Amino acid sequence: MSVVTNTTTIGAIDAPSRRNTELMMMVFAIAISVFAYANVGLALDGKLPSGMFGYGAGLILLGGVAHLVVRKFAPYADPLLLPLATLLNGLGLVLIWRLDQSPKLIRDAESAFGVFTPSAPRQLMYSAVGVALFVGVLLLLKDHRILQRYTYISMAAALFLLILPMFFPAKFGARIWINIAGFSIQPGEFAKIIIAIFFAGYLMVKRDALALASRRFMGLYLPRGRDLGPILVIWALSILILVFETDLGTSLLFFGLFVIMLYVATERTSWIVFGLLMSAAGAVGVATFEPHVEARVTAWQDPFKCFTTDGACEQIGNAIMSFGSGGTLGSGWGQGHSDLIGFAANADFILATVGDELGLAGMMAVLLVYGLIVERGIRTALAARDPFGKLLAVGLSGAFAIQVFVVAGGVMGLIPLTGMTMPFLAAGGSSVIANWALIGILIRISDTARRPAPAPAPSTDAEMTQVVRP
Amino acid sequence: MNKPLRRIAIFCGVLIFALLARTNYLQYVKADALNTRDENRRVRIERYAHERGNIIVDGKSVTGSTETKGSDFKYKRVWKDGPMWAPVTGYSSQAFDASQLEKLEDGILTGNDDQLFFNRTMSMFTGDKEQGGNVVTTLNGAAQKAAFEGLGKKKGAVAALDPQTGAILALASTPSYDPSVFAGNGKSDTEAWQALLKDKDKPMLNRALRETYPPGSTFKVVTAAAALENGLYTDIDEDTKSPLPWRLPQTSQDLPNEGSIPCKNASLRKALRYSCNTVFGKISDDLGNQKMIDEAAKFGFNKEIFTPVRADASVYPEDNRPQNAMAGIGQASNRATPLQMAMVASAVANDGKLMQPYMVAERKAPNLDVIYTHEKEEFSRPLSAENAQKLQGMMETVVKEGTGTNAQIPNVTVGGKTGTAQHGLKNSENPYAWFISYAKTDSGSPVAVAVVVEDSDATRDDISGGGLAAPIAKAVMKAVIDSEK
């Protein structure tokens, strides 16, 4: 049998499935998290924490199930995605559990709400739900191309999810939560995936029209209104909704997602120029009429200015000092003071705890893990054989990258804070569940992409035939 | 579609790279700057994270630490006899920072000082509990107690020095405050702090170091020293050329004496004994402003003094003739801290040699190794030994048969000078009662002391310094002499 190598579409026939590699890395990821637990317990109380075995067992169970399901139902999937996500989720659980032990946060919560509820057990439960959804995606979604059928349903669902929080009261200055039966859900996290499905389905169909049937205007190619119109309307609608809900992080995310996917679909650089111009105009516009945003821009410009006056920048100022306090090697698990940031320390600002307690070394590692997830996602897009899969994979990876950049950049004072969660790391049910689903879809696409092509039918003149590629 | 995909991959790489660059900038380049910011609560958390070292007086600590609950600061500072020692220790509050020795010696007390680096590194390896070092002061517990109790409910201050070394023996200020009441960061601490700040008696003011008063007649010792040093008069029993009444130069006003005392052409000894304004006003005028400033500066005027706690600069001003004449008797814009006047007495007592005042004798590492010992240091020589002995003779006369008889101690030679400094617009307010003195034993002088009592109800004659302040000075001197035996 001849071996056909192809860098873009068809993998090597009889390529190794890499499932054992994945298993090794899963063991590694879970071991690191369990050691981290032990470390926090030893630093805080001088003994191994009682919860360590519970969390350890939970992680092993979740990781094990996820791995077995991948082994069975997506055998050719990318071996890195699952261990990286498990590592982040495990470290996130330790960080949240560590912040649960903070006397300051307990005191603050007791004086504000009268009662303190630890976040780590809930996060473990949400992680379980997330992994269940991940398993569900792999079981139910035998082929990602099925999602193409739901292009317009996705559109409706995304809009519905985005509008929903308008009917619920605002929390912490943003209207992005819905409360159902005691659970707080951020529909934006799910809408991110669903809108990527819609963009991918729509752009796949219209991409030729968008790229070719265009008029040249001032050096830019402008597509026809009937091609671009619907997508522009949906996009504008979602941005408007998010702006009204003052959920700027997510609107930035949607915008980036839209520009990236349009650019990939049409292969026209002019979209990037357009995108940058529009985002600049949008950002300036929003920053001037929205006081919530204006305050954050001011806090970004000088994170220490308002410390003595109104305290509006205390969170970001404290976060930046957390990074400084960590230095090169960090203060050690459980020994930092990132709880000074206050109530959002385990959510939006969880990266500050990484910076404080794991230092520059830990921060670089965590950021590189995120970078690896993103690049493995784009690698999946490159390997995918169908345009829908390509668009969906790059959309999801791009959204992930932008989310990481917006949150981490905000917390580190690189850009104004917009309020989103660090995927997998931060406490928050919707975020962890949605991101597990995102990883599930990427794994499904990568499985399809890397699955060896069926052996060509025996043919007498097979040796003579040339493969013609587009 | 692969070309744009690769570009998107690069774009995402750039995003991650920007984050990596930012974290390097924050955690490597800016880390030190961020860690020393005032807003950084970690600095204070660290300061109170383990037991603070102590401030030692007479081998016993006057401070301590107690564990607190319900705060991210683990230990709280406590003081024994807080109000008595507050002018020495200062405060160290979780909420309101620290002052004086608690602030200046913070590095030693928390154990974070660079001098303790080796110590810290060792305890990191041996796993010993992190601890602060101790600061050993020069203070004399008995003298401090005598000073504090002598002042009692009166408003005032006492500074006592060992003239031979410059060691500060007592530093009292009343009304005082107890730094323990606001050492924490709770609500009651804030209330106590606010109440202290609002108190019109200013209990947190360290009057011994930070308040300058017109020194009144006690300054005549400096004027006499200037007269002797500049050769204006050489014999203290020789008649001076001092008319009575004596008109202030360039004015149409006579400088009054307190009561009808024999000041006409009085000798220096007699003039100091009776505290003649006319004699010393004229000396100041005869010498001129510059010579007076020079002599005062030799005693430490016009300069902040670090003990290491900062003492405000006492002021002998540059002035016109009549004002200079008034300054020569400790009035006009002449201002001195109690520490400054104690330095004047100690320079005279130490045969003209003024020692640098100090209150930290030793710094000790947490394992009690001494890492710093103060070496006595000469501040200046305002007087020749010969002139200093002449001045001693004059000051001893004051105590023996002049205005300072209240400071007499049996079998001890005491020299002193009283003062009643007028203040307020047109002398409307009650005067300050001053007394500066030194005691002498066979082995030289062990103590020089300055006492000032504000708002005295005393009548306005020069005796009030002797009546109110001298007994306190006597008690302090006696305490020092007794503790030497």
Structure description:
Chain A is mainly α and 470 residues long. Helix content of chain A is 65%, strand content 3%. Chain A has helices at residues 19-45, 51-73, 81-100, 103-113, 120-140, 151-163, 187-212, 225-244, 248-266, 270-289, 291-301, 314-326, 350-383, 387-411, 429-450; strands at residues 178-180, 183-185, 214-217, 220-223. In chain A, the strands form two sheets. Chain A has a two-stranded antiparallel sheet with strand order 1-2. In chain A, strands 3-4 form a two-stranded antiparallel ribbon. In chain A, α2 runs parallel beside α5 (120-140) and α6 runs parallel beside α8. Chain A is globular and about 75 Å long. Chain A starts with 18 loop residues before the first helix and ends in a 20-residue tail after the last helix. At the A-B interface, α4, α9, α12, α13 and α14 of A face α1, α2 and α3 of B.
SSE order and pairing:
The complex is a heterodimer of chains A (470) and B (485).
Chain A: H1 19-45, H2 51-73, H3 81-100, H4 103-113, H5 120-140, H6 151-163, E1 178-180, E2 183-185, H7 187-212, E3 214-217, E4 220-223, H8 225-244, H9 248-266, H10 270-289, H11 291-301, H12 314-326, H13 350-383, H14 387-411, H15 429-450
Chain B: H1 2-29, H2 31-35, H3 41-47, E1 55-57, E2 60-61, E3 63-67, E4 75-79, H4 82-89, E5 92-93, E6 97-98, H5 100-104, H6 106-110, H7 117-126, E7 134-137, H8 141-151, E8 156-161, E9 168-174, H9 187-198, H10 207-210, H11 220-229, E10 246-247, E11 254-255, H12 268-274, H13 277-287, H14 289-298, E12 305-306, E13 310-311, H15 321-327, H16 338-349, E14 354-355, E15 360-364, E16 370-373, E17 378-380, H17 385-401, E18 413-423, E19 429-441, E20 444-453, H18 463-484
Parallel strand pairs in B: 1-7
Antiparallel strand pairs in B: 1-2, 3-4, 5-6, 7-15, 8-9, 8-20, 10-11, 12-13, 14-17, 15-16, 18-19, 19-20
Helix pairs in contact in B: 8-18, 11-13, 11-14, 11-17, 12-17, 13-15
